[in-house]
């Protein structure tokens, strides 16, 4: 049984159209998921990596200053005892 060329062409066109629509739907789904993820991350109480690193450096300096003050206090107490 031979299928006429016009039927084959019509079938091929329909398949191409479905594939094209599938790609569009795939992109829409991807965009929607990306948007939802970004929206949820925005709701979280998070900071950027850069801000975290800056705060970490501040904390390290503060700890070093606290350690230095503690050593000074210990020395003063030792001298007054």
Notable features of this structure?
81 residues; mainly alpha; 2 domains; 2 helices
Structural topology:
Blueprint: H1 5-43, H2 49-80
Task: Write a compact overview of the structure shown.
The protein is mainly alpha-helical and 81 residues long.
| Anisotropy-based shape | rod-shaped
Helix content: over 70%
Q: Gap between N and C termini, in Å?
A: 111 Å
Mean pLDDT: 88
Number of strands: 0
Provide an overview of this structure.
88% of the residues lie in helices and 0% in strands. It contains two helices and no strands. The chain has helices at 5-43, 49-80.
């Amino acid at each position: 049984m031979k299928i006429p060329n016009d039927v084959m062409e019509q079938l091929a066109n329909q398949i191409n159209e479905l594939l094209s629509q599938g790609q569009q739907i795939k992109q829409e789904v991807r965009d929607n998921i990306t948007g939802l993820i970004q929206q949820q991350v925005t709701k979280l109480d998070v900071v950027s990596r850069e801000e975290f690193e800056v705060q970490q450096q501040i904390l390290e300096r503060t700890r070093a200053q606290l350690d230095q003050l503690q050593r000074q206090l210990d020395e003063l107490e030792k001298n007054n005892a």
